[in-house]
């Protein structure tokens, strides 16, 4: 069974998530503070952490940093902080996804399923990825249908495809593709993502696989 650690200082949210996750055959532990969360994670080794940012003892961002000091466990932030800067800060700290309160339980469960699926995908399975009607061979750097990408387009696409379902922040994409000096050049991403969509999406104006999360980053939805 997949182990999920839920961290929130609101008892009703802890109770609701525990009930819903147990009903879907997850193993669940709960913590109502950052210190308790870090101790529970170290003792229990969860497969996924659902984390509120507004904790009474340690800020959720610091909990993310604490976890990332020793584990790559996927972290989904569940927070009432709706500002883009809060979301970007959490993603840059190492969170894998961000869901804003009040939340739809079905959406959160879909994000949890996506993250847990991603952690079980092996490198060999990622070598060939379907994007709509196209098959992208990441090892051979080829795309079915004779589609050709520039080296920069390949770099962007590969980061997204190797992290299916994960929200990749603008800062991470800009740093990995262009370098740390370009973290504010978000127009680069808009331009190149538009080019990639024109080549791979059936309707580039209404993408279904290469998605924009406004003000935060991009996500590949299989």
Automatic annotation (TrEMBL):
Taxon lineage: Bacteria, Bacillati, Actinomycetota, Actinomycetes, Streptosporangiales
As annotated, the DNA-binding region falls at: 116-222
> What is a single Pfam family found in this protein's UniProt entry?
Response_reg
Q: Name the SUPFAM superfamilies on file.
A: C-terminal effector domain of the bipartite response regulators (SSF46894), CheY-like (SSF52172)
Name recorded for this polypeptide: Response regulator
Superkingdom in the source lineage:
Bacteria
Q: Where is the Response regulatory domain?
A: 3-116
Describe the location of the OmpR/PhoB-type domain by residue ranges: 116-222
